[in-house]
Amino acid sequence: MTAARKPYVRLDESLLTDLPPFSKLSAREIREILDQASSRRYDEGVTVFEEGFDAGRFFLLLDGYVRVVRITPEGEQVIALHIPTGQLFGIAKALGHDTYPATAITAAESIVLSWPMHLWDDFVARYDGFATETYKTVGTRMKDMNNRVVEMATQQVEQRIACAILRLINQTGRKVDGGIEIDFPITRQDLSEMTGTTLHTVSRMLSAWEKQGLVSSARKRITVLKAHELVLLTGARG
Amino acid sequence: MTAARKPYVRLDESLLTDLPPFSKLSAREIREILDQASSRRYDEGVTVFEEGFDAGRFFLLLDGYVRVVRITPEGEQVIALHIPTGQLFGIAKALGHDTYPATAITAAESIVLSWPMHLWDDFVARYDGFATETYKTVGTRMKDMNNRVVEMATQQVEQRIACAILRLINQTGRKVDGGIEIDFPITRQDLSEMTGTTLHTVSRMLSAWEKQGLVSSARKRITVLKAHELVLLTGARG
DNA sequence: GGAATCTCTTGATCTAAATCAAATACCGTG
DNA sequence: CACGGTATTTGATTTAGATCAAGAGATTCC
Predict the structure, then answer these.
(1) How many CB pairs below 8 Å do chains A and B form together?
(2) What is the pTM of this model?
(3) How far does Cα B57 stand from its chain's mean position?
(4) Which of A144, A202, B23, B203 has the most CB atoms around its CB within 10 Å?
(5) Which residues of B touch A (CB under 8 A)?
(6) Domains, in order of start, for chain A
(7) Which residues are within 8 A (CB) of A32 and not within 5 positions of it... i.e. 6 or more apart?
């Protein structure tokens, strides 16, 4: 698990300079950080780390997409959140855990950097802005989760699915002709695991929306054609 | 809002020495911290701070109970979490927010200390262990919320209510003859807002459990008589 | 290129829990 | 202690969405 390989080529400083946790750092500092990193490419659907296991490393998603999931005793899977490109993940130490609290699986082919967890305290102490920016990310994720709890408690399935899709296109939308496409493969099943419903209901919903011209979808692909109308469905005021 | 008054009597150091964020500090440091604090008593059901408002202060619950809630555009209320005695709350700065992300309301008569938010960075920098312990709390809350998302997505109402009650008695249970009582007033409505259901369903559930001798309840009071059997209801394995 | 495997769609049925509707119990207070 | 406001209980009805069931396309793999 969480195997780490040394890079074949030297990683370039420019990879990190624009990412919030590193934005205040000098080229020398970034060099330092990169020299301690391992990089690895993952195929789609590969586990990066698993819930409950010793949190030996922390990660940065350089490219691709990662899904954070939890699995119930009954074997049902729930998708807790998606990590967009450029963010840290598996940062158990930052929250006082010593095992990973959830499982991370690539949702598309991905490039991941990682460092041994014992460097965490170093990074926090040594690098200006690293902690602050990291906790900002944590804060955002917490807010998102909070919103999900509220949604699950108060909204109907249709609204929840609309919210989930909008969240995805905001985070990962890729402009295509006449719409915005979620730029990694996503199944009806996935969407149901994000919204606490079944693949059947998601399928029906998407079919209905497709008839109304709101979205267009194919196998593992969803394109939103009329984002604004989807927003209306979520019941947002204003 | 969030009015703060100077204490009438000098606060005693012993108030903080046992609380995790302060446990590593010397008496002198704790004195320093207390001297900058304002303390205030709140009646039950009073708003301590409100979602969206400027996060001017951060808080420590010295005694009593605080509920963190969010209110939907439609006016529905969702209880995100309960703050147990001894914990920090309203720590927006720690997560990079500058407004409070939710509303805090006392669930019982409470005593609250507070400090101006601009001291936050000082505290983190100056006091050993303060940041670490605080983020541990954040981590725990995050884990809890995560669990709630999983519950809401996969469990039936009966299980969710059982979980919510068990969580409450774990955090705040007070031993009474033959059982454990939730030691602040809690209505069926409150429980429904914690589990995303209706007060009617909660009432029916509690009635049924009462018939089976699992719980005993009165107006705003719930006592768990057979905790273990409630645990079984949640569907926990093992 | 055909078999096996995923993924998606759609109809029919069922059910948990919401909603609707009243009645009842409880509590503080003037 | 009677009154008004809050909580709670319980029955009847409705419904959103799960479950059951079956097929049809895609994709991958021999």
Answers:
(1) 108
(2) 0.92
(3) 18
(4) A202
(5) 70, 72-74, 76, 78, 80, 94-97, 101-102, 132-133, 135-136, 138-143, 145-146, 148-150, 152-154, 193, 195-196, 235-237
(6) 14-141 (2.60.120.10), 155-233 (1.10.10.10)
(7) none
